[in-house]
Amino acid sequence: MKLAIPEALGRHSTVAGARRSGAVRFIARLWRKSSVAGLAVYALALGGALGLATADWATSGGYPFGGVQVGAWTAWPRAGAASADPYTRAVNARRGEIPLAVGEGLLMTAAVDDAGRALDATCTYQIGGATPSARAWTLTVAGRGPREPGRAPVREGFTSTEVLRTPDGRFTVMLGPDVQPGNWLPSPRASGPVRLALRLYDTPAAASVGSLDRTSVPAITRLGCAS
Amino acid sequence: MNLRFVYATLLGLVIAGIVHIAAVLAIPHLSDKDAVSRARTSENLDHPQPIYTVATGDDPSPPEAWLPIPDPAVAVGVCAYDLTEGPMRVSARTGPLSLSLAAHARRGAFYAVTDQAAVRGALDLVILTRAQYDEALADDDENDPSRDVRIVAPDNRGFVVVRVIAGLPSQRPAANAAVQAVSCSTDTATDDTAKDTSGKGTGR
Q: B125-149, pLDDT tens digit by residue?
């Protein structure tokens, strides 16, 4: 009785092994029979599927290249230029985006704070300091994907004209889910990742992004998280 | 045997690279959702088609805005052009709000100008092909030089984007109106009558 189980198991495994070796032999026979045409079909199918899949992956979502890192911000100076790389052009075409031209302005985005942690809607952030010289700028916040339908739109951003400033001309914007004194930017949604966009209009920085450094862009500091 | 399979896989990877590059390069030409294709509906209008109007008071921004992440303080309009019908003239009058014009073709923006470049409060942009540019130069009256800004477009088709920034919420209706106040017209001929009727007077 005690011996029967391993015996049965052993028999079962030998049956499975025989079936597997049979399958292997079948594939091997098929393989031997397969002509150059079969291999060519395989190579073409592999190439086509892999090529299209990687092209789709590289051009969906944000721009894969062309960003210039300035502190927590990424500037996209060439997103709208005629000399933009093919990936940027493909991304623009797929999204229907009309990027800012170099003579018009500069888009900067941030998805992380100064410490490198991802921006989250449940956390409170202090965004403050100076901006590169520009005729006007807007600082906006957006969540990923479409807007939540039930949420009343309070405020999506500040412009350089309407932001409250300290006497030295600097400003501090508080981004968080709870009401704050001063420049309060409500979190766009209850939870999840958020992105900040700083659009500089009519700025000389668009032509010389290399001259920007950490002190010339607003600092993003995390003050605390609700959960 | 296995070597043949390895060769086929390597060949497949090379084909994958070629297909990847070809697909990325082809996407701007094949896409029907890109800005040039979508702007085409505005070709017959004589003013920009608003594609993003800023929210005013109780009026939220319309949902048909196709910009993925628009700036909530900037009103955007587009004028599509087809240069086979003649040069495209964009006339704007400067106002209290900052305005910018950018000319885009399929490859991207090839020209941008803000209202700070306006001459006596007027900004006249003429987009033409190389042949139309030469013709316009030849037709120029030496005693009365044209004040138009002439830009040679790389393609026949494209669009001009008008952006007006509303710095304050109270300026938002004015920003929407300022986009509509820009005139986009096709210069059917280079004679002066067409220039006068389409270029001046319709700016505001």
A: 899 888 888 888 888 777 777 778 8
- What CATH number matches the domain at A68-225, 2.60.120.600, 2.20.28.20, 3.30.1300.10, 1.20.1560.10? 2.60.120.600
- Please report, for residues A62, A96, A227, B163, B200, the alpha-carbon distance to residue B68 in angstroms, rounded to integers and kept in the order given: 11, 7, 30, 16, 35
Q: Which two tokens stand for residue B94?
A: 């400067």
Give domain B35-199's CATH number out of 1.20.58, 2.60.120, 2.60.40, 2.70.220: 2.60.40
Question: Which A residues 106-135 touch B at CB under 8 Å?
Answer: 135
Which residue matches tokens 């005629």? A82
Is the ipTM higher than 0.95? The answer is no
- A38: alpha, beta or left, given left = phi > 0 and alpha = psi -120 to 50? alpha
Inter-chain residue contact B168 with A43, CB threshold 8 Å: no
Picking from B27, B71, B109, the nearest residue to A101 by CB comes out as B109
pLDDT tens across A143-169, in order? 766 666 666 667 888 999 989 988 888
Q: Say how many residues make up chain B.
A: 204
pLDDT at position B199: 41
Beta strands in B48-187 (DSSP E): 49-52, 74-82, 88-93, 99-105, 108-114, 122-128, 149-152, 157-165, 183-186
Tell me the C-alpha distance between A37 and A44, whole Å: 10
Is pLDDT of B201 > 80? no
* Angstrom distance (rounded) from CA A77 to CA A161: 23
Q: What is the four-CA torsion angle of A121, A168, A104, A196, rounded to 10 degrees?
A: -10
Residue spans per domain, chain A: 4-59, 68-225
> Distance from B117 to chain A by nearest Cα, in Å?
11
Could you state, in order of their start, the residue ranges of all structural domains in chain B?
A: 1-30, 35-199
Q: Mean pLDDT, to the nearest integer, of A99-118?
A: 89
